[in-house]
Design goal:
The complex is a heterodimer of chains A (299) and B (187). Chain A has 299 residues and is of the alpha+beta class. Chain A is built from 5 helices and 14 strands. Chain B has 4 helices and 5 strands; from the N terminus they run H-H-E-E-E-E-E-H-H. Classes of the chains: A alpha+beta (299), B alpha+beta (187). Chains A and B meet through loops of A and helix 2 and strand 5 of B.
Amino acid sequence: MKKKLAPLFIGTVLLSSLSFAQKDKKELDRKSIKDMCGCYEVTFKYTETFAPEIDYEKKLDYTAAALEWAQVIEEDKDHIAIQHLLVVNDSMVIKHWRQDWDYGNRKLFHYDKDNTWKFLTLPKEGVKGQWTQKVFQVDDSPRYSGAATWVHYDGRHYWENRTDSPLPRREYTKRDDYNVMSRGNRQEITPYGWLHEQDNNKVVRKDGVEDVLLVQEKGYNVYTKVADSKCKLAQDWWKDNNALWERVRAVWDTVYDREGPLQLKPQVDGQPLFMHFYGLDNNSTEADIRAIIDKFIVG
Amino acid sequence: MMNGPKKNGKVWGGLCLLLPILFSFIGIPDKVMVKVRTAISETYATGEYHLLPISVPESLQPQLAVDFQGGRLQQILVDKRVLGYAYIGEAASMKNKFDYVIFFDADLNIKKAKVLIYREDYGRQIGSQRWLKQYIGLGPEDTVAYGKTVDAISGATISAKSMAMAVDGTLKSLSVLRANNMLNTDK
């Protein structure tokens, strides 16, 4: 009898240790994601590297710097949303990008081209243990998303993924020689804060033909942690404006609850979506917000 | 029926006008010409231009260091004003040939040089504008000497030397064409 129970006992012990290990891993993932929060001095550096065509002339490097506040704005066991806010000249706050992280998530969006995203559901087996990162624009419209596993080895903590996106904001109004950025995103928690390292491909995409690589690009967004007090302006701004943006996210969630494409007009009445949001305040209703967003949805 | 001959006449007339232009590009592959046209728009900051091939008599060819047949030398015009010239050439790399273009202003000074198509992995450094910009401003009286008046490139010696010789040959040849009143440099 004892001999028969032994394998069962060992199996139970192994299963529970595996379960504990998974739980610990998930907690480590959550800690790494939340380690991107706080006040950061950020430097942005991009340089074009290799082009297949010899006559391509590399564009000038892009460099910029900013002070940025990032905080968790939504959280449950499988979901963390982080809002980034820019502090400009110690006097102005600009709502910047948002990154949502979802554990074992199957629903995401892929950028195609022409301001069109395809919403799709991944197979359950494919996302086991993975976190989806969904990145949104300043007006909470979609930008890009991708799923991958957080890696914790040799004292390093990083997540990396390749996915397509529209042109980055720094080139959106300046370039028309490519229409899709295939982004190699690598986010690594470091002793000084965190690093968003990028290996991007600038791609020309047309219907019915293979993508053409125009040029590759290396990018480093270096987030160096500073005292939270330096970002007090942004913290206060969020307290004052959070209610509106909670409603904006709720409206977008109803738009994102779909399978298939979502195409957004780049401009309506000569202005991009985020400028239409300037007229909103904490008294604006979900119906007000929906009316603006609907004007941008094609079809 | 009466309109037939007139229509045919117009068609033949049009073809007669087009043929010299069509044949003038006959030696230059379409892919190269597409790149040349894009480069002209960028270099001269205009999309509104037309190209006029310059025919060089074969009797002059022995005095010229580069090939001018098949529409390799083009005058770039906006309306009737000469913006400059483009010389579209071919030179040797280590195991193959590469295509290049040299743009000149109306006074025959180099405005830009570009490698358009390169067909092997070694020596691609010659496509970098950091190296090619050395040629900007040179005119028919200048001499290009690889490793002396222009920098050498380590790891791309054959192609870089070849490009330097091509630029030197083009400048010397333009000097001959100008002396023979083949180029209308009136602005």
